[in-house]
Amino acid sequence: MASHSANLNLEPVIWARLLEAQKRDISPELARYLLSIEFTDSDRERIGYLAERSSSGTLTPDEEAEYDSYLHVANVLAIMQSKARVVLGEKPLTHS
Fold it and tell me: Considering the entire predicted model, what is its pTM?
């Protein structure tokens, strides 16, 4: 049996595979709901704070785990919202 690092979080990878494996399209109602999900202002502030500390290399181990969790959730949400945009015929978001 292969060994894995105790800090390796495979949940986002598994969620992404589950989402990609779905054969049935989501309903327009569900698509609209998924597109309405966003981080709260306090979460966005916390993510910004953690991002700054990450860039400066000053994250504590607990902060690093928290930041990684935020990034993993954001990535899964981005995949789900991308699928929702396809269902609704919307163009993908572009970042400037």
Answer: 0.74
